[in-house]
Amino acid sequence: MAAEVKKEIELEIAHVLFIDFVDYSKLSVNEQHARIAELNEAVRLSEQFQRAEAINRMRRALDMFIVEGPMTSIPLHQKILAHPDFQRGDIYTAFLEHMNDPVKNRGIA
Description:
With 109 residues, the chain is mainly alpha-helical.
């Protein structure tokens, strides 16, 4: 039996937009593509999409950063980026203080 390759699957919440254009199926292929392109642009311009994209870019950058020797704040930044409140944009003055408090951070490690 061939060696099995196991990939760790990371699940994320996704919002799905179902559309029903009037007479969509009667449109030409080019017109259908244009309608879908309009929807894609609307989604990409949304605050939620742009926040998620920025967080993903920041995570990738921090994951690629390698510093040997002195301690850095990279682990703290990674923990902040992974926190659900931060991802929702629900930031407040005492956010950092509450991140390490199991009662105030709703049990998030």
